[in-house]
TrEMBL record:
<feature type="signal peptide">
    <location>
        <begin position="1"/>
        <end position="16"/>
    </location>
</feature>
<dbReference type="InterPro" id="IPR050468">
    <property type="entry name" value="Cuticle_Struct_Prot"/>
</dbReference>
<dbReference type="GO" id="GO:0062129">
    <property type="term" value="C:chitin-based extracellular matrix"/>
</dbReference>
<dbReference type="InterPro" id="IPR000618">
    <property type="entry name" value="Insect_cuticle"/>
</dbReference>
<protein>
    <submittedName>
        <fullName>Pupal cuticle protein Edg-78E-like Protein</fullName>
    </submittedName>
</protein>
<dbReference type="InterPro" id="IPR031311">
    <property type="entry name" value="CHIT_BIND_RR_consensus"/>
</dbReference>
<dbReference type="Pfam" id="PF00379">
    <property type="entry name" value="Chitin_bind_4"/>
</dbReference>
<keyword id="KW-0193">Cuticle</keyword>
<keyword id="KW-0732">Signal</keyword>
<dbReference type="GO" id="GO:0008010">
    <property type="term" value="F:structural constituent of chitin-based larval cuticle"/>
</dbReference>
Length: 168
């Protein structure tokens, strides 16, 4: 019985030690095609260029490109250093090939006013219709423009309505 148990253990160890690609980490498996975004069985992509510099004073830059056509670069700096309006500003670009074969290129700036991308593939809003634009301009000229800011006022208005701080 001891010999049978020992043989069974050896057989289990031998079958577990068998090198089967399904148990290898994803990038160790042989590449067999498939989706570009599946993450399994993808080849290792060569880094062709990588530059990275951080000067410690708020200025930095980096750039990289890969063997499959991905590239990116960015520069950043501090604006209004030492003031209450100090802000980090970043400018850069990136590009890659989409799964449908379209070349995607984006340039951008990012600052205290947000992220502002530009690219031929990005949708753009339609123009404001003339009638609405004239109405906005008229309201601003008449002083009826409300900037949407909360003004802490309370009480009853001349018309008898309770005012909770918003200007209507």
């Amino acid at each position: 019985m001891l010999q049978f148990t020992f043989s069974l253990c050896l057989l289990a160890l031998a079958s577990a030690a068998r090198l089967d690609t399904q148990y290898l980490p994803p990038f160790s498996r042989p590449y067999s095609g498939g989706s570009a975004f599946s993450g399994f069985g993808q080849p290792n992509i060569q880094i062709l260029r990588f530059d990275n510099s951080n000067n410690g004073d708020g200025t930095y830059n980096y750039a990289y490109s890969t063997g499959n056509g991905i590239s990116a670069q960015e520069q950043g700096f501090l604006k209004n250093v030492g003031s209450a309006n100090e802000a980090e500003v970043a400018q850069g670009s990136y590009s890659y090939t989409a799964p449908n074969g379209q070349q995607i290129s984006v340039t951008y700036t990012a600052d205290e006013n947000g992220f502002h991308p530009q690219g031929a593939h990005l949708p753009t809003p339609p123009p404001i219709p003339d009638a609405i634009l004239r109405s906005i301009q008229f309201n601003r000229a008449q002083g009826g423009y409300d900037d949407g800011q909360y003004r802490p006022q309370s009480g009853f208005t001349a018309a008898g309505f309770y005012n909770q701080g918003y200007r209507y």
